[in-house]
Amino acid sequence: MQLEHTGTKGLLKSVKRFLWLGSLLMLTLRFSPALAQGAVSPQSPRSARTVTALRLESTITVDGELDEPEWNLAEPATDFIQQNPHTGQPSTERTEVRLLYDDENLYVGVYCFDSAGREGLVVNQVNRDFSGTENDGFGVLLDTFDDDRNGFIFQTNPQGAKSDSQVGSDGSSYNRDWDVIWQVKTKITEDGWQAEIAIPFKSIRFHEAESLTWGINFSRKIRRKNEETHWSPVPRPFGLSRVSQAGTLEGISGLPQGMNLQVKPYLATPVLRLENDDVDFKPDLGLDVKYGVSSQLTLDLTLNTDFAQVEADNQQINLTRFSLFFPEKREFFLENASIFQFARQGASRRIGGRSRLDSDLIAFFSRRIGISDNRLVPVLGGARLSGRAAAYTLGFFSMQTDDFEDTPSTNFSVLRLRRDVLRRSDVGAIFVNKQAAGGQYNRTYGIDGNFTLLGNLDVTSFFLKTDSPGVQDEDMAGNITAAWNGPLLQLEGQHLVIGESFNPEVGFVPRKGIEKTRGRMTWTPRPGEGIPWIREFRVLNWIDYISSTSGTLETRQMETRLGVDFQNSSRLSVGRDFRFERLSEDFPILPNQDIPPGDYAFSEYSLLLVLDRSRMFSGEARLATGDFFSGSRDSYRFLFGFRAGYRFESQVTWDHNDITLPAGEFSTDLVNTRFQYSFNTRMFLNALIQYNSELKEISSNIRFNLIHKPLSDLFLIYNERRSTTGEVRERALIGKLTYVFSF
After folding, report:
1. Can you give the pTM of this predicted structure?
2. Percent of the chain with pLDDT over 70
3. Is 509 part of a structural domain of the chain?
4. CA distances from 675 to 388, 422, 621, 700 (A)
5. What is the distance between the alpha carbons of residues 287 and 266, in angstroms, rounded to a whole number?
6. Three-state SS for 143?
């Protein structure tokens, strides 16, 4: 009992810190009326670069030719500036961008000149939402609210592939799974390549006004040189999604507001065969509706929601004491996901120039809806209202699942509200409710503040509380994080407290009853012309210190890593990872093997080599050796990639562990094989085949996708789970047809 009392005092002490910080924030807003109204600082970093869109009096045919006379009348945006490899220098190749518009579309015409002609272009992918790092490419960012925070990105490459994304919080949130209707056609010439893009105004949200001023930026990737350039310069380590670095788009006026209604029915025909050879055929119908309530708010409705076309998860083997994180992949939950993001946490953030997923605590994790104990629960339907209203960002979400085996019918609802303050900061609140038939419930309440200061300083703080029947103590969590992201030095400090009874059933928390302090420092000097084949050195040091809320040390992890980034995007690094773990109870690392309680200190040394993935042959190797609790571990990761042009791509990854403990030896293997064949930019065949030694299982997920009309798909999916001895555990053949009606 004394331990519980001490833990509660420790948690309350930390909570007081967060309440003090929140009170200070509220007082600042209370006595700063201009800031409370979301006013923009006169020292805004908005670039002085300006481009004007010319209104059309005739029709543009989107064919990639750029032969209409109006293109020659528009003043081009030129003089792109390198971000990499030589920051601040002019681009080595000329790019010209012209803008036209009519009542329905914004047209972007692009000339990407290349001194090597068509032979210098690199195109490795044409699938939807292709990777921009492995291809020549062009992108446009639109800040349609002119708020330095939110935007839409449209990207293409010389073969006309399409990628579209939503950006929030000045690039801190980035949603590549957002898909809308737009057009692009390209043409490869002797002088390089060109693109003609049409973006419907009803596909994006914007303020209603007679005359509009938007933020805008353009980027170009020249892959053979691994060169990244922007029209309005963007400093390292940021990218095109850094909305505040955009230039200005002028000249757009008199846009009519259309109905903006999309109706998307689907027909699914799954044929299932289970382990006992039973065959089940259940054709199904459903409907999705999207309606623009205003120019800034969108209402989404879904009925009898189906996710049959979703790619299978990448399997993982768990050698830790905590739950593994699997990302959301379902389309309905991914769209506008950034609006429901809480405290810039659970999102991919750039630390030390690399993106990582911070999943210590996620207040709202949509994967909890429709999935229970790795079983799919039928989703009856739901609604989502999301968008902006003046200085507010609003998200409301409600989804109803059906009875399934021992899982009762349940409603999941989320309300997220954020208020813009300062120039690029916000404060907000979240409410998450899970209400099951029979009266069972779970609720999460929280407030957060996200501040961008001095250009490169990000400060985030939040406080959360959960409400579950019979729980009245230690059900709170709080965090404060500060990160400095400069071109040469990146720093991060964090303090996180999670109560023992903190229980967000529609969130993700792998570890409770802890106080966690984290420090990270990354130094990224560049040798310049002194060593022309090296782009950047990387020195990383970080430490995690995790104790119980009573102050007892549970985990301490320290890593030092030295790395080199080469000009062709290959990487080499070596590192040492030292860990201390205190086990208060048996750790069942295997069903028949436990690691006993005690204090354990152990180190691991590793080597990582990543080869240029834009080549026909590419690879990755990670070798690690060292102690593992009271024994030792050798681990290996090998990746081999092969691609034949932009049509065929394959990748095989093998993860292997050899572990020796006093109780015995064992090994694990995980093999992941991917194949993709792109017939063109609208038809694809994908396969994901995995072997997991822990499950003693081989799983296959094969998908054919035909985009027969924008946002309208035909899917044919084959799923199979087979034991290593040959028995089929589950097999399914699914056909799914969707069709979008736009009004």
Report:
1. 0.84
2. 90
3. no
4. 40, 47, 20, 11
5. 6
6. strand
Q: Is 101 inside a domain boundary?
A: yes
Domain that includes residue 78, residue range: 50-253
First to last CA, the chain: 65
User: Could you say which DSSP state residue 72 is in?
Assistant: H
Amino acid present at 525: P
> Cα(344)–Cα(546) distance, rounded to whole angstroms?
21
d(CA 638, CA 652): 8
Report if residue 105 sits inside a domain: yes
Give the residue with greater pLDDT, 79 vs 7: 79
pLDDT at 47: 61
* Number of domains making up the chain: 1
Burial degree of 422 (CB within 10 A; 0-12, 13-18, 19+): buried
Query: Which residues touch 306 (CB under 8 Å, ≥6 apart)?
Result: 266, 268, 284, 286, 379, 736
Q: Which residues contact 714 (CB under 8 A, 6 or more apart)?
A: 704, 705, 706, 708, 735, 736, 737, 738
> H helices of 544-627, where?
none
Q: What is the DSSP string of 235-251?
A: -TT--TT-GGG-EEEEE
Alpha carbon distance 703, 716 (integer Å): 6
Q: Does the residue 265 lie in any domain?
A: no
For residue 46, what are its two tokens?
A: 């908005």
Residues 484 and 449 sit within 8 Å (Cβ to Cβ): no
The candidate with the shortest Cα–Cα distance to 412, out of 388, 432, 429, is 432
Summarised one tens digit per residue, pLDDT across range 495-531 is 999 999 999 999 999 999 999 999 999 999 999 888 9
Q: How far is CA 743 from the centre of its chain?
A: 30
Distance CA 293, CA 121 (A): 43
- The two beta strands, 54-55 and 95-101, are parallel
Looking at this protein, which amino acid is placed at residue 167? V
The enclosing domain of 176 has a CATH number of 2.60.40.1190
Cα–Cα–Cα angle for 683, 687, 688, rounded to 5 degrees: 140
Residues 425, 451 contacting (CB under 8 angstroms): yes
